[in-house]
Each structure stands twice: as structure tokens, then as C-alpha cells.
Amino acid sequence: MSHVSLMRGSVYELRRKCGKPSCACRDGVLLHSCMAITWSDAGRKRLRSLSPKEEVELVRLTENYRRFRRARARLVELHAKMLAVVDQLEEARRREP
Ligand SMILES: [Zn+2]
């Protein structure tokens, strides 16, 4: 099995005003745009802007993480179903002393 890296967080386009009164962004139409990643660190929401090169890589890693978590959730579900079947088997086969 090949090694697949995972990264928590979401990559998205951050659009905002810079706050300078003379800037074209002041009317809210031409906003400044950059790519950023947000993630939760010990309950605190963190944000970091990304270079275009980083963006491609981090989109890939965060998608890997989401795919991994979905697979884990399916495994938890399947495990519960298997336990239920095992419990039914026990119930059907058990004899009292
Ligand atoms: Zn501006």
C-alpha cells in the first residue's frame, strides 16, 4: 500500500477588503482575493493564506483527508452491523446452565 498524506482543513478562496479608503475594493465589488486554508487547532479556528503552488498540493491533501474520514465512518458503521450479527448468533446459540 502506497503512502498517502492527509491534511485536516479546507482550502478556499478568501475575498476581502483591505480597509484602505482609496483602494478599488472599498465599494465591495473588486475585492482582494487569495487562496487560504482553514483548520481547527485545539478548538480554535486557524487560517493561513497559500501560494498558488501550495494551493494545488493542499487541495489534494485535504481531499485525501475527507476521503479517509468517509472511509472510516463506513468502517464504524460496518463494524456495528457485524457486532449486531455476532450478538444475534450468540443469542440464538446460547444455552443456560
Ligand atoms: Zn483594497
Description:
With 97 residues, the chain is an alpha+beta fold. It contains one helix and three strands; from the N terminus they run E-E-E-H. The longest helix has 42 residues, at 52-93. It starts with 9 loop residues before the first strand and ends with a helix. Bound molecules: zinc ion (ZN). Zinc ion (ZN) binds at residues 17-18, 20, 23, 25, 32.
Q: What attributes characterize this protein structure?
A:
97 residues, alpha+beta, 43% helix
Layout: helices, strands, pairs:
Elements lengths: L9 E7 L15 E10 L2 E7 L1 H42 L4
Antiparallel strand pairs: 1-2, 2-3
The protein binds zinc ion (ZN).
Strand content: 15-25%
The count of helical stretches stands at: 1
Give the helix level as a range of percent: 40-55%
Q: Could you describe the largest sheet, including whether it forms a barrel? A: 3 strands, antiparallel
For the secondary structure, the number of strands is: 3
The chain-level structural class is: alpha+beta
Could you write a compact summary of the structure shown?
The chain is an alpha+beta fold and 97 residues long.
